[in-house]
Amino acid sequence: MGFRFTLGTRGNYMSLATLDLDKVTYFDLNNQLNIPKNNSIQLQKDTEALQAFIQENVKPNTKQFNSVQDRFDYLIANDYVDQKMVNKYTMTFIEKLYAYLESQNFQFKSFMAAYKFYAQYALKTNDGDYYIENYNDRIVMNVLFYANGDETLAMNLADEMIHQRYQPATPSFLNAGRSRRGELVSCFILQVTDDMNAIGRVINSALQLSKIGGGVGIVLSNLREAGAPIKGIANAASGVVPVMKLLEDSFSYSNQMGQRNGAGVVYLSVFHPDIMSFLATKKENADEKIRVKTLSLGLTVPDKFYELLKNNSDMFLFSPYDVERVYGKPFNYVDITAEYDAMVANKQIRKKKIRARELETEISKLQQESGYPYIINIDTVNAANPIAGKIISSNLCSEILQVQRASQINNEQTYDELGTDVSCNLGSTNIVNMMATKNFGKSVDAMVRALTFVSDQTDLDIVPSVRLGNRQTHAIGLGAMGLHAFFAKNHMYYGDEEALDFTNAYFLMLNYYSLVASNNIAKERQSSFYEFEKSTYASGAYFDKYINEDWSPKTDKVKEIFSVHHFPTKEDWVALAESVKQYGLYNAYRMAIAPTGSISYVNDATASLHPIINRVEERQEKKIGKIYYPAPYLGTDTLPYYESAYNMDMRRVIDVYAAAQQHIDQGMALTLFMRSTIPAGLYDWKDGHTEKMTTRDLNILRLYAYQKGIKSIYYIRTYTDDMEEFGVNECESCSI
Predict the structure, then answer these.
(1) Is residue 342 within a helix (H) or strand (E), and if so which, with residue range?
(2) Is residue 362 flagged as an active site residue?
(3) Which of 175, 395, 490, 614 is catalytic?
(4) How far is 107 from 28, CA to CA, in rounded Å?
(5) Is 323 helix (H, G, I), strand (E, B) or coil?
(6) Which of 187, 283, 340, 685 could make an S-S bridge to 395, C-beta 3.0–4.6 Å?
(7) Where would I find the Ribonucleotide reductase large subunit domain in this sequence (predicted)?
């Protein structure tokens, strides 16, 4: 086939399958990162581990080719690559693309980055014995796919990706260009109406979507409660819990072509009568008949709940069946905050009463125990929503927030009325590298176009409501990672005045230039998203705050950082508002902050917008053991700025996320990091009280987040006393 295979300079191993892990040195070298020597962190050991991994693992086990042409002949002949994609380009251009990437001399910066890439992302032979892809090859597959024959865009994307300014989410990065692949879409949101046909349809949809893509979020609030009548028969309804069990089994069965485990989350309104039994499914002592082990839980929380909490009032839980009968629309679409008093007074609506603070305590107890439920401040979400329609729920990680319309399913499991559900494909900017770009707007334009192509080519006929929603909105989710790394590199403490100033400025710029890109696409295609004319983009109201307020950096350090970029002025916003009014926007949604995981390591970035957990992070890898990852740019000068999230006042984290949220049209996967024993002086309300974490601590933090305009809280992670381990993170005298 025109390829040659070499074993490289260390030819002890015939293939990955026969690789003797007892003879390699890179794991031992990497492990020495966690062993202080002369009161110093041995960072050089990670560099040695990286070099050893390339020499002992990668080079001997990678197929080599005589030329780019030979490589593609082999990939096409053996059905590894999408031939239709390749045929959109000349081989001369592909060779030019390779020449450019090789000239940039990309090198992984840590052992973890290289290990994660080759373990999870690099294409291997069908038998798994050999790598047939390196980092440059995976970038080529991505840019050829996203550019769809546009050579200029392909080169621009190659520039963004080789310098790690842009990183597609795992499904996209993993699958792009492959002939046998799962979908590139990261996540989905479905809803179910109050009938058996809809329940059956959503279970089928969950199976199908989990098989081909990322996580699936399903809102169950429309379902009538346990004990409600069905066709006049009292106590006939089973409620939401049996549906949860059915969905959990569905997700457990389905996965993305064996590459990712199926995963899902179910959401319920805090005003649903089944709320307590819903929460009880995650308790450690829950009966096996109701317990859900792998399904995630989330709550949609209207403003009215916070008002009832403040007043220490009773709260009423309303029958979704009765609410729909009275209001003529599903429970999800009724504004509970506005209609609460009328619903309480309406005798046609069955209801039951609990104490609001009793429910609040149950939420906090469960978050202490399991990390769940996620919280969606649904009125905050809709108040900020620029698009016509109502947002009713979120996805598996709580950052996707888009409008939906309910479907009506008939007895044949087809649609009498086709509504809209949600799909979204994600990508992240690497903040440290992005701030080094020579043209911020050009970089964002390439990213938006890459994400838009995924939306355009996604045609999920297996779930028509998702397909219709995608066709109407062209929604994407451009986010960010590496924020704490940027702070440390630039000697800012996480959550201080300079950090908040930078966060505000960065996400304003990302918002502005993504709007410019979407406006340009709309202008080129003479097409906008569905019902653009009903949006606050069209009316101009969306732009008022940018035109009427001064958003420019305030601190000297941040002013200097942004001095090399064109920071949007009021005049720029006025011009953009006029252009949007005239030509529209192609993407109804553009931004979302996902919780970046393994892909952050490949980028040598800190995860998402979160603070680090440890200066040297410990990861448990299956069959391998512990692998250690030093924080990016860790050195003597940055050491003081890398404070662990578990030692940090979570109000500082909320403040950072709030600074970003005001510029992000969707949401952010905000995780709170708690200790079971809270360090003295960390929270003022703990003075004179127990040092142990209590439900009150979480109550206060959730309320603080709500007051700061946070749309969602993703997960609560608790560090327990027995998790302590000696290593460089506990050696206070350690230097670099």
Answers:
(1) helix 336-345
(2) no
(3) 395
(4) 21
(5) helix
(6) 187
(7) 573-595
- Both structure tokens of 234: 């009292």
Rounded CA-CA distance 222/240 in Å is 9
> pLDDT means per 10 residues in the chain (736 residues)?
34 58 89 88 94 96 95 96 96 98 97 95 93 97 97 98 96 91 85 94 91 86 93 84 93 64 86 97 85 94 98 97 96 98 98 97 96 97 98 96 96 92 95 97 98 92 95 97 98 98 98 98 98 98 97 98 97 98 98 91 96 92 86 95 96 98 97 94 90 95 98 94 52 42
The residues near 27 (Cβ < 8 Å, ≥ 6 apart) are 21, 49, 624, 625, 627
Query: What's the gap between Cα 717 and its chain centre?
Result: 17
531 in active site = no
306: three-class secondary structure by DSSP: helix
- The torsion angle over the Cα atoms of residues 540, 541, 547 and 551, rounded to 10 degrees, is -130
Are 385 and 403 in contact, with CB atoms under 8 Å apart? yes
**Range 451-455, long-range pairs (CB < 8 A, 24+ positions):** 451/168, 451/425, 451/426, 451/427, 451/476, 451/477, 451/478, 452/476, 452/518, 452/521, 452/586, 452/587, 453/145, 453/146, 453/147, 453/148, 454/146, 454/172, 454/184, 454/185, 454/425, 455/423, 455/425, 455/587
Write out the E strands in 192-342: 215-219, 264-269, 296-301, 314-318
Query: Assign residue 239 a region: left if phi > 0, alpha if psi is -120 to 50, beta otherwise?
Result: left
Domain architecture of the chain: domains with CATH: 187-422 (3.20.70.20)
Structure tokens at 637: 């000068």
List Cα–Cα distances, 582 to 385, 387, 533, 548, in angstroms.
21, 17, 11, 21
Task: Classify residue 635 by burial, with Cβ atoms within 10 Å: 0-12, 13-18, 19+.
Answer: middle
Active-site residue flag, 397: yes
Phi, psi (deg, nearest 5) at residue 618? -105, 130
DSSP secondary structure, 40-68, as one string: B--HHHHHHHHHHHIIIIIGGGB-EESSH
C-beta of residue 53 within 8 angstroms of C-beta of residue 26: yes
**Region of residue 215 (left: phi > 0; alpha: psi -120 to 50; beta: else):** beta
Return the structure tokens found at 518: 């979407």
Question: In sequence order, what DSSP letters do the residues of 112-181 get, joined into one string?
Answer: HHHHHIIIIIS-B-TTSSSB---HHHHHHHHHHHHHTT-HHHHHHHHHHHHTTSEEE-HHHHHHTTBSS-
Taking Cα atoms as reference points, which of 252, 669, 205 lies closest to residue 469? 205
Say which of 57, 248, 397, 511 is annotated catalytic.
397
Among residues 260, 227, 221, the alpha carbon closest in space to that of 244 is found at 221
Q: Peptide bond preceding 568: is omega within 30 degrees of 0, i.e. cis?
A: no
